[in-house]
Amino acid sequence: MSDRPAMLALAKDVAGRRILDAGYGSGSLSAALRDGGAVVTGIDASAGMLALARRRRLDDDVALHVVDLSDRLPYADGAFDDVVASLVLHYLEDRGPTLADLRRVLRPGGRLIASVNHPFVAYTIQDPRPDYFATTSYTFDWTFNGQSVPMRFWRKPLHAMTDAFTAAGFRQLLQGTGQVTEVEIAENRQALRQRAPGPLHIRARGRSPRIGGLPRTGGAAGAGAAAGAGTRRAGRSADR
Fold it and tell me: CATH top-level class for 4-229?
């Protein structure tokens, strides 16, 4: 199942908005945003994905570039109204610098809409079972154009994900999921195996500029992000 419908539902009306698609893959999400009236710029670390998107003639009206998210983005501060990152952030061991740079290129109050593999997925499918509260990695072979490519995902507990968004300068939209204990996870592991959650979807806004050390709009910026589990199986898709 494609991740695209859930991402578009979170984005809502995008007409006239400047959107950076971070990790555009085959370009399906970029195309849908463009068709919704957005001005889209797409970046991906893979030259192969760029070639695929160009074969689909996506670059006729979407600016596509090969850019690694681990590097500083070649865009000015506040260049975009929204950033979308579909099933890409879990490839990064340390998401903090990337999230901070995505926040930099967003205008004040701009939105980051992202999806990542749900932290429960690796916990339920890996043997031996990893420590839920630790950062762990796992690999699998992804087949693309008849070629098998090894992929590595980094799994972090849910609270570490939301803490990273807060540290990067994003504020809370809705209260996220609370803490869970190792015992609670162990007791429910079989149920999780039978119905593994899909991607975790996150929508967060950049904090308003500060004046004299205080937020321009009243109220403290909280921890977390709006998060919801979709129904798609975990894993990267070439057609998001």
Answer: alpha beta
